[in-house]
Amino acid sequence: MAHGVTWLPTFMPVATQAAIKGLTYQQMEELGVTLILNNTYHLNLRPGMKVIQEAGGAHKFQGWRKNLLTDSGGFQLVSLSKFTKITEEGALFASPFTGEPTLLTPEESMSIQHTIGADIIMQLDDVVPSLTTGPRVEEAMWRSVRWLDRCIAQHKKTGQQHQNLFAIIQGGLNEELRRICLNEMVKRKDSVAGYAIGGLSGGEAKGPRYSMGIGFAEDLLVCIALGVDMADCVFPTRTARFGVALTRKGAVNLHSRNALDLKKYRYDMDVIEEDCPCPTCRVKTSKAFLHHNIGIETAAAHALTQHNVVFQARLMGDVRDAILKDEFPIFLKNFFKTYYDDFKSYPRWIVNALRSVSVDLLEEDLSYSILDEEGVKWDRAAK
Ligand SMILES: [Zn+2]
């Protein structure tokens, strides 16, 4: 992309208001992060497009030199606004300032994102809550296809050369509608750079396939196994501020006021993860220090945020290596073995989801190693 290479799969930290909570952009760059997310709805409200335009785009405004993705603004609008009415023209909502009815059209969403200047921009879609059923789901799906066409037309008219437009697949939990939507959107592949999975729990997205709002390590790994390349979530940075460190053995709540944990962490002089390359672990910051300061000193929040951002980035890097070596199934098995103490505590949905792509977490790995030794390549289809 215009602001450098981003390797897939990737996890994108979220800078809702043009700031990563707890870290500076210089730190983000040094940690090796190459793609972050800004929220269009929030930037449009504050500081507003006049300021962004004056700055020459959101990259310059916030001092971020790597790649940037913006959403369409539609999802926040539907979830945060007091009233939103969807018409064919666009989404009608109450202005948070004046209460006046204001219309966000696909063209308007594009032109705001053109001003922001992100490297990846999202179409405006018609979002329905994932539990909605009936004709509304199909209506929203077809409208999202029509709005994609309007976004493509507007993007061709005023878009910047470097900006990649992503489509958002709708259709609720109805597989057939999802398939129809996907087929329609793939027909536009000459004008679309990627596909997002929308309308699940938040503002999801997937083509590169981009899954919006996914942040737990276990969710990320399952989504990647099912074909997702990109995901974003505020989870790793938010949870850091509450004192939770992400590790390959599961999350550790260092802020816990649980009597047992109090004793445990007060004297715990170990680092969060011995082999972690993050600045916090590298200088041997103890869990006792973090436990003592989290929620009190901002330095503790910075330290944990750095660890969590690196944790996600390193996990994605290891997944990438495993995929390139054709060892992803075995990587998944090893990961979950470490992540959950006992296979009996594997969540059923994870086991089932991975079985759908022929990775059986509960099966002994004998077949893999024997086949491998004989020089027969492990093959999904053959299984
Ligand atoms: Zn660390």
UniProtKB/TrEMBL annotation:
MF terms from GO for this chain are:
metal ion binding; tRNA-guanosine(34) queuine transglycosylase activity
Keywords assigned by UniProt, alphabetized: Glycosyltransferase, Metal-binding, Transferase, tRNA processing, Zinc
Show the Pfam families listed in the entry. TGT
Biological processes, Gene Ontology terms: tRNA modification
- Say which enzyme class the record assigns: transferase
Q: Does the keyword Glycosyltransferase apply?
A: yes
Q: Where is the tRNA-guanine(15) transglycosylase-like domain?
A: 2-340
| Superkingdom, taxonomy of origin | Eukaryota
EC number in record: 2.4.2.64
Q: Name one GO cellular component term.
A: cytosol
Q: Which NCBIfam families match?
A: Q_tRNA_tgt, tgt_general
Under which name does UniProt file this protein? tRNA-guanosine(34) queuine transglycosylase
